[in-house]
Amino acid sequence: MLVVSAILLAGYAYIAARLTSTAPLRVALAAPFVMVWVLPVVYWFGDRDRRGRVHEWVQALSFLCMGWLSFLLVLTVGRDVLLLATAALPPLAAGHTRLDEAGAAWVPVAALAAVCVGALAALRGPYVRRVDIPVEGLAPDLDGLRIVQISDLHVGPTMRLAYVQRVVDMTKELAPDLIALTGDIVDGPVPRLAPHVAPLEALASGDRAFFVLGNHDYYSGAAPWTAHFEAMGFRVLRNAHVTIARGAARLLIGGVIDFAARMSDPNARPRPDLATDGNARPAFRLLLAHNPKIAPLAEQAGFDLQLSGHTHAGQFFPWTFVIHLVHGPHAAGLSRRGRLWVYVSAGTGTWGPPVRLGTRPELTLLRLVAANGPRHR
After folding, report:
1. Residue 49 pLDDT
2. In the chain, count of helices (H) and strands (E)?
3. Tens digits of per-residue pLDDT, 119-140?
């Protein structure tokens, strides 16, 4: 709480100094900072099970303020950089004066416009992304296997029933052979969000739907959510695997717990080696792991493909660039580590601000193909 407060206070001091000149404006600017501060203090570090429309609206507004302040900070820094650059170049003196006098008023407006455009892109999603995974020596009975990945849906204050129903309807239209939920499906407790995740039960028939928990699922209550998804018909994989037959081929599907499991058990950690079958060699090994940082362990365990999420591909600028510093080389999309393919979803929903700028919320259709097949469609 002290760290969050210090960051918000520093951000406020900088933006207030650069964009405001009167006390009323500084008081008005403080309001969105307070709204963002409320999120961790009241809803994250306090009682997560606060119910009611008022609490939902407060959290949604706080997340929108978070998005606006992020763009406001970036644009304020950008304006200051331009002021420094134009001050050093006499031919640009007129532009420098205009930017100095009127620029401060346009920065908040531009930040609001970015939030509106980003919110429209986020809430109109998801979009189907089709990815072919070329596999050498792929068993003929697995050629063309279709996997739909749903990741980082974040059902909660901003992702609601209507959006989940849209995801389910689109998934059915894709006619997948397997459905993989790779974590961070919820942001809240079972009693509050069960009605909103209910449409997902329609995807769990036929023993084809698998689920691994992400860090936000642990924050929201790992045990009750595990029981709830199992009751819906999903196979929840926790450092475990199942093997299914497709014709003459055997497909192993493993799943690992998230690093956040250490919240309740300090010794818990993701173990891809426990999510496989030792010396037996199936035709293909698929690992579901919320965090892409598990890839080195997945390669050692002999998996062929890892499906992850967690990063949201940065979700919106400038985090779309920062995420590559944190999670590279497996920050977003398809990449490879030795013989292991790693696919990191940009997220089917959004976390925090319901904003997308530079990324799109995706429902991913992955298809296994022989190595000489197309890689993307």
Report:
1. 63
2. 10, 12
3. 999 999 999 999 999 999 899 9
In this prediction, residue 51 carries a pLDDT of 62
- Record the tokens describing residue 203, joined without a space: 């995807």
Q: What is the pLDDT of residue 377?
A: 43
323, 308 contact by CB (below 8 A)? no
d(CA 86, CA 239): 57
Residue 109 contacts residue 72 (beta carbons within 8 Å) = no
Q: How far is CA 128 from the centre of its chain?
A: 16
**What does the pLDDT read at residue 46?**
61
Residue with tokens 């689109």: 170
Residue among 368, 301, 300 nearest 334 (CA): 368
C-alpha dist (Å) from residue 356 to 71, 94, 288: 12, 35, 25
Q: Which residues of the chain have pLDDT under 50?
A: 374-377
| Residues ≥6 apart with Cβ < 8 Å to 329 | 335, 337
Pairwise CA distance, residues 192 & 187, whole Å = 10
The first and second tokens of residue 114, run together, are: 């970015």
Domain range summary for the chain, segments of one domain joined by +: 2-123, 127-370
- How far is it, in rounded angstroms, from Cα 228 to Cα 248? 34
Instruction: Note the pLDDT of residue 283.
Output: 83
How far apart are the C-alpha atoms of 234 and 200, rounded to whole Å? 9
pLDDT attached to residue 376:
42
What per-residue confidence (pLDDT) applies to 279?
66
- Using alpha carbons, select from 228, 217, 227, 210 the residue that is nearest to residue 263: 217
CATH number, domain 127-370: 3.60.21.10
CA-wise closest residue to 150 among 368, 367, 363, 365: 363
The pTM of the whole model exceeds 0.90: yes
Q: How crowded is residue 7: how many other Cβ atoms within 10 Å of its Cβ?
A: 12
Distances (CA, A) of 87 to 26, 41, 79, 90, 286: 27, 42, 12, 7, 57
Strands of 127-135's sheet, edge to edge? 127-135, 362-370, 146-150, 178-181, 209-211, 235-236
